[in-house]
Write a structure and sequence with these properties.
The strands form five sheets. This protein has a seven-stranded mixed sheet, sandwiched between helices. Strands 5-6 form a two-stranded antiparallel sheet. A two-stranded antiparallel sheet has the order 8-11. It has 347 residues and is of the alpha+beta class. Helix content is 36%, strand content 21%. It has a domain of 219 residues: 2-Layer Sandwich (Nucleotidyltransferase, domain 5), CATH 3.30.420.590. Belongs to the LytR/CpsA/Psr (LCP) family.
Length: 347
């Protein structure tokens, strides 16, 4: 099993020459979108309170129509292959983003969360933003350019083609939500592999209790480390583990009001498709009632190193043979088996 999820920007490159000018407050960029997973897991084990928590999410999250997200009305969720949720992110406030006109923007955080039908685990695949793929109507391009070329519907289609099956839900979150969730829990204890300083904050080797601003600095820093993005990825993993442990703890799960307030504070920073509602969350929570932090598995999309496109862009190449295995796993609801036996890394 791979434990090197690279999240939003494993590769930091200059903007593409073909990229359209972007307004400062309308840039979809780096974010720890995996927090949606934690919110869903946060309602596990709450029993009779699950429905109320789901309703709180439903009443406070920002809902997008099927046409805005998928380009058409959805007929329903696929069940045979499990559930796949596309997670996109922004470090700009989502209230400043026109979701009806996302062309010209880039989705620099792309992750797919897979919920197996048996409800026994969760798998999360991170897709590097510069992954060189087929984008319908535009030939080969970076996967994050799909949002720029055709808005959310084309981004959804492109990622669906990449994993070889349908996406059932889509969620977008910004960093304000990240900080709000951290602070709503009274801070998160994170085990840091290295000591470092950034933005006036000091992080010691070992355990650190972080508030929202400190946590944001911790998960974003890379220049302090010899292996840059790889250490940042490990720090992000460490934070996720700490956050998950905090939410799925006796103190949290035994306090329905704390969970209710957590979701209420966090949900306003989320934009989700209309199907990701109270009914879905409560049903998912019941089905996943036995999931624990150790059942959340991370892996990276099968890539084969960096390269250069015919027009001179720096890109991430796809390991096509391994991708076929990933697509089979998503199609057949065997992603957990794939992760358990996957190569350690493709980079």
């Amino acid at each position: 099993m791979t434990d090197n999820t690279t999240f939003d920007d494993l590769f930091d490159h200059q903007p593409d020459e073909q990229q359209r000018p972007r307004k400062k407050k309308r840039v979809w960029r780096k974010v720890l979108v995996i927090l949606l997973i934690i919110v869903i897991l946060g309602v596990l084990g709450v029993g009779l309170y699950v429905w109320n928590v789901g309703r709180s999410f439903d009443n406070n999250a920002n809902k997008l129509s099927d046409e805005q997200v998928f380009g058409k009305e959805k007929s329903g969720n696929a069940e045979d292959g499990g559930t796949n949720i596309l997670l996109l992110g922004s470090d700009e406030s989502m209230k400043d983003v026109d979701v009806n006109d996302s062309r010209g923007l880039r989705s620099d955080t792309i992750m797919v969360m897979h919920l197996p039908n048996d409800g026994g685990s969760v798998q999360i695949m991170s897709i590097p933003r510069d992954t060189w793929v087929d984008v319908e109507g535009h030939g080969k391009a970076k996967i994050n350019s799909a949002l720029s070329y055709g808005g959310l519907p084309l981004a959804v289609t492109t990622v669906s083609d990449f994993i070889g099956t349908d996406l059932d839900h889509v969620a977008i979150i910004d960093f304000e939500g990240f900080k709000a969730l951290t602070d709503s829990l009274g801070g998160v204890t994170v085990n840091s592999e290295q000591a470092f300083e950034k933005n006036g904050y000091s992080f010691t080797q070992g355990e650190n209790v972080l508030n929202g601003d400190e946590a944001l600095t911790f998960v974003r820093e890379r220049k302090q480390f010899k292996d840059g993005d790889f250490q940042r990825a490990r720090n992000q993993q460490a934070f996720i583990r700490g956050l998950t442990n905090e939410i799925i703890s006796a103190d949290t799960l035994s306090n329905p009001k704390k969970i209710q307030d957590m979701v209420k504070n966090f949900a306003p920073y989320m934009y989700v498709d209309s199907g990701l509602d109270a009914k879905y969350i409560s049903g998912t929570a019941f089905n996943m009632r036995d999931v624990r932090p150790t059942d959340i598995e991370f892996f990276t999309a099968p890539v084969a190193g960096v390269g250069t496109s015919p027009d001179g862009q720096s890109i991430v190449n796809v390991d096509e043979d391994e991708l076929k295995k990933v697509q089979d796993a998503f199609t057949n609801d065997t992603v957990g088996d794939y992760v358990e036996n996957a190569p350690e890394a493709h980079l």
